[in-house]
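Why predict the complex rather than its parts? Because the way molecules touch one another can change local conformation, and only a joint prediction can capture that. The input here totals 550 residues.
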Amino acid sequence: MAVETEIVEIAVRTIGVSGAATLLAALWGIPLGIILGLKRFRGRRVIVGFFNAMMGLPAVALGLLLYLLFSQSGPLGFLHLLYTPLAIVLGQAVLITPITVSFTTSTIEAIDPEIKDLATTLGASETEASMAVLKESIGGVLLAVAASFNRAIAELGVAIMVGGNLRGLTRVLTTSIALETTRAELDLGIALTIILLVIVFAVNASVNMLQSKVRSWLWK
Amino acid sequence: MRNKGIGVWFAVIVVTVLVSVLGTTYFFGVGPFEQRRTKLVVSTTTSLYDTGLLDVIEVQFEEQYVIDVYFISAGTGIAIEYAMRGDADLILVHSPLHELVFLEDGYGVCRKIIAYNFFSIVGFAADPANISGTILTQALTRIVDAGREGEVAWVSRGDNSGTHTKEKSLWSIAGFDWNELRNEDWYMESGLGMGKTLLIADEKMAYTLADIGTYLKYYTDGLVSLEVLIEQVPDMINVYSAIAVNKNYNPQANFDAAITFIKYLASTDGQQLLADYGKITYGRSLFFPAVQLLAQNTDPTLTQWIEDYAYFNGEECPVEYQDDHPELYR
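Output of the joint prediction:
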């Protein structure tokens, strides 16, 4: 395989893996973030604090825990997930869930008092008032998703520990950069870094555009 | 009422999590839904992988067999740990001490010595400890003496790799206790791979023990200016072996593919590939084929060095660990 095709393959795999992880984290993280932002219940502060703290979890520490979990002799070894792209997807999804949840929660919290009160004053029901808050917070939620993707695509620890950096199977951009650096192929390492940055910038620019589109559509 | 609402929300989340995990699993076609293909996971040492040799071997092997080979590159210590945990089918390492334990504890069978080369002591051309041209024990003694006077430094891998294990054994050959040396000021431990350790040695103007493959790569690319000061002496020999994971220990290991791969590495094709690797780029071989040398004793001195260093009770693989594959040793 030519180096170029291999790099393209790695870049595509990276987008797929981190994209899937971001979608998974969004699927469970956004609803959770909305509950934490809108509802008031006992223990809520503790949960919010927990997710805030977990944003600081080092990827390599999570990678080690997941390795022990997915390893053949670990509790989930029978799933044969170790050294598969799916293992990285799941690991990154867990890694970025706190970001999705915390950003969503805080964006809703920031809006809650004014809009909700206003909507209720204008005769809206509890549900309608909540919907108004959600509409207003859509920009923040998209930012939560973008930030999660950024963290997923930029992390190395999970990808290397549960992915194993297997050529043609689980090699992603960050693990390639690490490998090429130890192989003294610094030029290739820089090239891969540029590709990674281009992907990150492109995705974040698209999210920005999407944000204004969605907002105008929602309030039409 | 409000609490009931929360309960429903959490139920929704749990269902979403389950559906999305199973959905992705199915989508990626792996995990429980995986179509079993012949896949061979080899955990190997960085000194083999980082040179690029294994990529070349992989391409040729996969052309000839319907087996997908995947390499996990790590230090010898962790490479063996992966195999012990059942996460690899074969190990490709260079640490006879670790290998013997791996066989004795029942984790591995069918050890085959594949290749050898030499470790080198590298350092600055100025050679402040004046070790060039001396014998190994004298060189190490001079480094320790000059180090204690604060004139030179030593950088160790410190990562339980094959190279690190070798370094510890060299200190003991020279009559030093590594556990004492490591507490001295001039003795640094990087805890990193060979390449990064070479870069540190270069930066600190220190001496280090290097495998020749990684060193030549870094030297040829102009990343380090360290020179080889001691090489090609018996105690510096570096022997690479392949060991299959014992199917009695881990029935899930892909044992047949592991044996196929070992046989390929030991075949004329595999050995030729190994011997030629690096000749064009570095002007010399990085690894030397060991199979024919040991089988036919083409160079008695070298054979003796390898036997002294890497044989167990006078054998490449004692018969109790041959697992009904004596043809590997004919």
